[in-house]
Write a structure and sequence with these properties.
6-stranded mixed beta sheet; 8 helices; mainly beta; 51% strand
């Protein structure tokens, strides 16, 4: 069922009306703090200059326009070439979150926070965590997107495609505090408190401490999506240019899942269909019917489950030292630690509880213990800017599949948003030891005042080892050793305010260390058969572009070509909940061609109009064979790679009154390899409006903001591939789709002291 808060809707409507009325009245003198907000509007979207690759960034102000708690990933969805999807209005529901750039999905991209690796940001992550658990969105200072290939020093072994770098806000120079309160549709409640100490003494440390607490009901079905985060950052200046930084973030997240859909389920059950909870008896009836069918009737077994959820607890910390050694030489040293505990829960009818209900709770359990260090040296020598770096990481990952009892027929006994204990069965448990070593060296040469050339190389060695605790015996090691991955580019200023740029980059992706993905997800015999012949995925990216900047206009246009070789395909066998071993193989290559363009126009003071367009053509180069049958995918379009994307955002901000509206068009997308299943194109409209009251008593600035997402209540499929992709889906039964959230309203009150 769809939850809409009448009270909140009325409040938002009143807020929008009041803000519009204020806009028509004379504007009083703007305080310095409010005026600075209007000035920042000019740089909310930054087209990087002097860089040899396609790159843009967004500031904290852009994120602040969005509903509180929105993922910083959603803030960059308007950038050219970005296809971001989620089944919730915040883009933070991890099972559904997908980002695709130039045909590469998030598992083939690189992500960092303050230079610290976040892994491949997959749902069942084996080597990192999602950005929504690494830093509160209110504490993100900026997000930098490189669509083609990131910097050589990026700490990632998965960035075949682009990289996304997040940067956390430093503690303020002066003492300050901030309190944000948000409410809205589906009983959304979010509170955020931040305190900055300012300089404790002249040249002394600065400290920021913040807490975020959020709770929202699902917009359909039953269940909550909750998160609490604690964030600490300390910066101690060292001389004029050096610093010592300490960072710590703790996240406690529990979210009930939405049911994966198929077009067949939508036809039979409707768009509002979800899991059975809280209807326990309906779940029991379906489980009994499933067993009676011999667990072969997908309608009664898999249309819905009793309940589903994901629970994650993360602790991430780092120490970073920036130390100049004279005017020409400097060093950056970082050491980090990440620990994660997680469970993904499904109420499954496939395993009944002995002496209890005809179902149980199936979990996939994750424990990560990562430790790493990054060292970078920079040396200025004449017109050369030299850089060398080394990244090492040791990652101990444990993954297990367990079943927990539902011992009563009269009602559920397990709480899906708490960590479960006391399993009735451990189906399997494996430990994975992953050792990563990556180096890079590069030279940035100022050939002339107009021409800058970058050349460099990186190399990596990633060794993955599996050991068996419980289950079918698996043991062995597989590694990726790529010592020479070159990168070269240039930026040339043709006239004042215009430059052309180009880059070539080669990248490789390390294997995944997990029993549910990568080379270890097959059988023991299957692993032995492939471990000596399996090749890592590689990509060769070539891009050429033009940037321009005038007084009221700036933009970029880029053409690119990407050769993606030794593509690995994990062929899912049966429904995702069954957990059958997948089949992994190198199945050929993909060729991608495309054009991206973006323009930001400021026709009058305080008004900005941003537009981006992308055309992308990602096609398979080769057929492949599975179970002795040729799958003719050659010439077919890669799933979840829309051909056209168009984004438009109009924003006005005079320092006090602000209003923003955006439109996001996503072309139709295939969800099968043979292009026999496709979701329609759609356009989603969003908006926000607000007013900043300057200097009210002891409050430096008070902001009242209303937001609406999916303003036209568009009915559309957001996420595709939630349970992977199949070759064909002639009957529309592939259960791998998630509906986008309907129209939602939110209102925020933000106070700065």
């Amino acid at each position: 069922m769809k939850h809409q808060s009448t009270t909140v809707t009325t409040l938002v409507g009143a807020t929008l009306f009041a803000a519009a009325a204020v806009a028509q009245s004379p504007v009083p003198a703007v305080a310095q703090g409010a005026a600075s907000a209007a000035d920042e509007l000019q740089e909310i979207v930054i087209f990087s200059r002097g860089v040899a690759r396609q790159q843009q960034s967004v500031s904290a102000e852009q994120i602040d326009y969005l509903p509180a708690g929105t993922s910083p990933l959603k803030a960059i969805e308007k950038m050219p070439g970005v296809n971001f999807q989620s089944a919730d209005p915040f883009g933070a529901y991890e099972w559904s979150t997908r980002i695709v750039v130039r045909g590469f999905n998030q598992n083939q991209m690189g992500f960092t926070l303050d230079g610290i690796p976040l892994g491949d940001m997959s749902y069942g992550n084996h080597n990192g965590l999602h950005i929504s658990r690494a830093v509160p969105s209110e504490n993100v200072a900026r997000v930098v997107l490189s669509q083609g290939s990131g910097a050589l020093g990026t700490a990632s072994t998965s960035n075949l495609g682009g990289t996304i770098e997040f940067y956390s806000a430093d503690p303020r120079q002066d003492m300050a505090a901030r309190i944000d309160l948000t409410g809205g549709s589906n009983a959304t409640q979010r509170g955020f408190v931040r305190v900055d100490s300012g300089e404790l003494s002249e040249g002394g440390p600065r400290i920021s401490l913040s807490v975020a607490d959020a709770n929202a009901e699902k917009w359909k079905g039953a269940g909550d999506q909750d998160q609490r985060m604690y964030n600490l950052k300390i910066v101690q200046p060292i001389g004029e240019k050096g610093s010592l930084t300490a960072y710590y973030n703790q996240s406690e997240r529990a979210e009930n899942d939405y049911q994966d859909l198929s077009f067949d389920i939508i036809r039979r059950r409707g768009w509002e269909w979800d899991n059975f909870a809280p209807d326990w008896n309906a779940a029991l009836r379906a489980a009994v019917s499933c067993a009676a069918s011999g667990y072969s009737n997908a309608v009664v077994c898999d249309d819905a489950y009793w309940n589903a959820a994901g629970i994650r607890e993360d602790k991430l910390g780092y120490l970073a030292l920036t130390l100049p050694a004279g005017d020409r030489l400097s060093f950056d040293l970082k050491a980090y630690l990440h620990r994660n505990e997680g469970q993904g829960l499904w109420g499954t009818p496939y395993v009944p509880t002995p002496g209890g209900a005809p179902l149980s709770v199936r979990t996939t359990e994750y424990d990560i213990d990562r430790k790493g260090a990054i060292a970078t040296a920079r040396w200025s020598l004449g017109n050369h800017q030299l850089e060398a770096g080394l990244w090492i990481e040791a990652n101990d990952f444990t993954q297990a599949r367990r079943f927990y009892p539902e011992s009563s027929l009269t009602g559920p006994t397990q709480q899906f948003t708490d960590f479960l204990s006391g399993p009735l069965l451990t189906q399997w448990e494996y430990t994975f030891d992953t050792k990563t070593q990556q180096y890079h060296v590069q030279d940035s040469i100022n050939v002339s005042d107009a021409l800058r050339v970058n050349i460099g190389v990186k190399g990596m060695k990633v060794e993955n080892t599996i050991n068996t605790v419980t289950g079918t015996a698996k043991a062995g090691t597989i590694d990726v050793s790529e010592a020479f991955l070159p990168q070269a580019g240039f930026a040339y200023s043709i006239v004042d305010g215009a430059e052309i740029f180009g880059q070539y980059a080669r990248n490789a992706r390390a294997f995944v260390s997990a029993n549910t993905a990568g080379p270890f997800s097959t059988t023991a015999a299957g692993f032995q058969a492939i471990k000596d012949s399996l090749q890592p995925e590689t990509s060769d990216t070539l891009e050429l572009g033009l940037r321009f900047r005038a007084q009221t206009l700036e933009g970029v246009i880029t053409a690119y070509r990407v050769a993606f070789d030794d593509r690995l395909l994990a062929i899912q066998q049966g429904p995702g909940i069954v957990g059958n071993p997948s089949v992994l193989a190198n199945v050929g290559s993909v060729l991608t061609n495309g054009v991206e363009a973006a323009i930001n126009w400021r026709p009058i003071e305080h008004l900005s109009w941003f537009n981006s367009f992308a055309w992308n053509d990602s096609v398979f180069d080769n057929d492949y064979t599975t179970n002795g049958v040729v799958v003719p995918v050659k010439g077919k379009t890669v799933p979840d790679a829309p051909e056209f994307l168009f984004k438009s955002e109009l924003a006005y901000d005079n320092g006090q009154f602000f209003v923003r509206a955006d439109a996001n068009y996503v072309d139709s997308r295939y969800y099968t390899f043979l292009n026999q299943g496709k979701v329609p194109d759609y356009t989603v409209l969003n908006g926000s409006i607000g007013y900043r009251f300057a200097k009210l008593a002891f409050v430096e600035e008070l902001t009242l903001q209303g937001s609406v997402t999916n303003a036209t209540d568009e009915l559309y499929i957001s996420t595709v591939g939630s349970n992977g992709f199949v070759n064909a889906d002639p009957n529309g039964t592939s259960q791998t789709l998630l509906r986008g959230a309907p129209r939602q309203y939110f209102i925020s009150l933000k106070a700065k002291f």
